[in-house]
Amino acid sequence: MDFSLTKEQQALLDTARKLGPLLAKNAARYDEESAFPAENFDALKEAGLTAMTVPKDYGGHGLWMDGNYLGLYLVLEELAKYCSSTSQLLQVHCHGTGYLAWSGTESQKARYFKEVVENGKLFASFGSEASVRQTGPEPFDTMVKPTGDKDKPWRLSGYKGFASLAPGADYFAVWSLIEGTSRMAEGMVYAVVPADDPGVRLEDDWHVMGMRPTVSWGVHFNDVRLADDEIIGRPGEWVQDDPRTFSLAFASNHLGTAQGVHDYVLDFVRERPYLRDNPVIQVKLGEFDTMLVSTRMLIWRGAWLWEQGKWDEAEHASILALHSAKQTGLAVTNQAFDICGARVAYHNHPIGRAFRDTRTFTLHFREDRYMQFAAQHALGMPFHSKQKYGPRITAEERDKAMEAVPEAMQRRYKAAAE
Predict the structure, then answer these.
(1) What gap in Å lies between CA 117 and CA 213, rounded to an integer?
(2) Chain segment 267-298, per-residue pLDDT in tens
(3) Which end of the chain has fewer CB atoms surrounding its CB within 10 Å, N or C?
(4) What pTM does this model have?
């Protein structure tokens, strides 16, 4: 494995690094207001970073595809040093456009990628249906059903929670089930909904302690009418055909936040000889450095495996990297309090904000479930890259499931298979 960066990767990293001062300047304000970081995204668009997962043929960088993964994670880590929320929102957008790059038709790609590259439009991807009011298992009820209308043959109704980027996006990539299916494994498609559709209602319920600028509001969809080219992919494609996951993107964000705290602490200690020369402090800083470098190497190894097309092995490596990134992020942001003292407890101190963000963001998916997946892989039990979304099913099982969906979707499914 070659640890040197390509010219393209270094250029992306340099571009992200130049935006650091702007993100750092705005971090406290957007956190206090719990507002979408619009100025940050204006700069990201101007720098071309919102086109990272747009294929090169359509004017983008072609990341998260075609053996080109690490560059995305380098950028997300770098941005998270200054603002974890901005990094996360860019990730959400890049995954939204990345779905389209994998599953979209040529006409869909031409239509939407022009909007991203030339007009600076943003995509938000919504999967979760959890709500602050909800108890019990999380449902997946957002459903696409036929209308019988020629121009708008589909309608979408449902709810999405924790919908990061909702008030800042121009399009919503909505994880949906086709009528007649009950699982993502055979029935999930993406519905692309314009944010200003009259059937969309945003609910500002994002009153949380950390990751506040992600503006992860609730979104209600009420009988949204969709054209055929606003449905992306064939049913079940995300689980059965597209092997990619978000694990390394999350890991890169946690790592970047921790690295930003470590950099702050190093500067703080250097300016204070009584801390700089303290062997206890030196040991702690050495532990931080070890955790950060170890986590980064796990991420890079995972990215290398993705680039080799070793999908299941890559996701196993990504789970290990994400576990390490979570533990590193929590340890560094927490223990930095003891080194820097009481001033860190002020609400908008950079370390205090990083701790709140890390404690919130590391709750995104249950750690015990990830460790179960890692153990199942180690034990030689069934494991695949999309394990958290559903089982792999045979072609025969998939064809059988399609018999229950509307005829228009059956035709679409068969045409895509051909």
Answers:
(1) 24
(2) 999 999 999 999 999 999 999 999 999 999 99
(3) C
(4) 0.96
